[in-house]
């Protein structure tokens, strides 16, 4: 999202739905997950209208927002998916995908 959309994500999502856009893609890295809270309120009761996708792999820390790490480890993937679904207030998404794959050590 950019410009006005950044200032009013709910209005942007609602307008997109009015226009027939039903693909909603989010990531835990955006706002360190805080972006998903207004999305939760906006999609409540409209879950069946939305193809919800969540991205993961970029790990960020709330205590240091400038910190970025990459992890595709199964433990992180499970934690990231569970946390995202909890923030979004949904039981499942339709697509969880990795932004970047890291080499295993």
- How many distinct helices? 4
Q: Give the SSE order as H and E letters.
A: HHEHEEEHE
**How are the strands ordered across the major sheet?**
1-2-5
Q: Tell me, rounded to a whole number, the average pLDDT.
A: 78
What Rg is obtained from the alpha carbons, in whole angstroms? 14 Å
Query: What proportion of the residues is helical, as a percent range?
Result: 25-40%
Shape: globular
- Alpha-carbon distance between the two ends: 35 Å
Uncertain segments are: none
Task: Bin the strand percentage.
Answer: 15-25%
Number of domain modules: 1
Counting DSSP E segments of at least 2 residues, the number of strands comes to 5
The biggest sheet, with number of strands, parallel, antiparallel or mixed sense and barrel status, is: 3 strands, parallel
Question: What structural class do helix, strand and pairing data support?
Answer: alpha/beta
Description:
With 105 residues, this protein is an alpha/beta fold. The chain has one domain. It has four helices and five strands, in the order ααβαβββαβ. Strands 1-2-5 form a three-stranded parallel sheet, with helices on one face. It has a two-stranded antiparallel sheet with strand order 3-4. Strand 3 and strand 4 form a beta hairpin. Helix 2 packs across helix 3.
């Amino acid at each position: 999202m950019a410009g006005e959309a950044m200032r009013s994500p709910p209005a942007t999502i609602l307008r997109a739905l009015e226009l027939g856009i039903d693909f909603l893609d989010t990531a835990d890295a955006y706002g360190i997950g805080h972006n998903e809270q207004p999305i939760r309120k906006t999609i409540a009761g409209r879950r069946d209208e939305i193809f919800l996708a969540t991205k993961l792999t970029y790990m960020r820390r709330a205590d240091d927002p400038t910190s970025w790490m990459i992890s595709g480890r199964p433990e992180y993937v499970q934690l990231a998916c569970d946390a995202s679904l909890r923030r979004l207030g949904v039981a499942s998404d339709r697509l969880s995908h990795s932004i970047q794959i890291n080499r295993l050590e």
